Amino acid sequence: MPVRDQFERCTDPSLNAMHAGLADVIGRWLKREGDSSTSIDNLLFFRREALTEPCACMVEPSIVFVVQGSKQLLIGDQSFVYDTGSFLLNSLDIPASSQVLDASVNRPCLGLVLKLDLRLMAELITQSGLPTPCDRATSGSTAIGTMTPALLEPFCRLLALLNDPVAIRVVAPLIEREIHFHLLRSNLAARLWQIASVGSQSHRIARAINWLRANYAQPLSIDELAIHAQMSTSTLHHHFRLLTAMSPLQYQKWLRLSEARRLMLNERFDAASAAFQVGYESPSQFSREYGRQFGVPPKRDIAALRRQTNSIEAQQ
């Protein structure tokens, strides 16, 4: 079920010029397909040169936008499509699938990710005097916002700092603060107020997610998780599924399987050792659930991933 906020296609020449400038910067810093961190701690670049099938990923609280091409994020039965006229906002750590919809070798899909600082967001809400948004935030942790020159222009100044380490230390935090401020004035302000407000249901679910990420290898007690989130078990289940499209148990399973996949691929664990490491008591159960999650058994999946990695390295 596609989900896309209504917005007019932007024809502002200044916005188009800023997108072209950002595409040039990202293209110069990231010349090969893939993802790349930058010297600015919370900023990442990505480059894709072909259309892709949906790929599993973990999305952090962040703003994501493309300066060339288009992508979509799939969460449960919802799809969030974004291109140069829009941006993707995610307010929780959630499992999802990412897909490139428009890219080629000659015109790659280029974009960036800026991790959100929810504490800074809460501070700005308290100190800025901004009025409470009149509209009500819709359910879910992810949404599509309208790209504006006021939001894009600080990113141009942020990327201009990449060649100046001293300026990064002094100026980058100020520009990131400005970006957060503009987000609080965007058409997604209500959603940000909801997640940043201490005591809100979204804030409590964020606490539950942080606890699960820190304790995913331990047996899951829903009662203990509800106490930590300061919610009843029924309220926890309802709002957790509303915001993440899965139950707490499904979320823990995704964390376990993803970490096991990383251990097998990067640390050379065998399937049984990885299963025990992430909290499974039965390797056969692990293999069944791994196959349901990733489509193939662990051994075949890791072998295919290594072949793909070796092929990319050979091309580079």
TrEMBL record:
Pfam families: AraC_N, HTH_18. Residues 206-304 form the HTH araC/xylS-type domain. The keyword Cytoplasm does not apply. It comes from the Bacteria. Keywords: Transcription, Transcription regulation. Gene3D superfamilies: Homeodomain-like (1.10.10.60). GO terms for molecular function: DNA-binding transcription factor activity; sequence-specific DNA binding. It comes from Tolumonas auensis (strain DSM 9187 / NBRC 110442 / TA 4). The keyword Translocase does not apply. InterPro entries: Homeodomain-like_sf, HTH_AraC, Tscrpt_reg_HTH_AraC_N. This is Transcriptional regulator, AraC family.
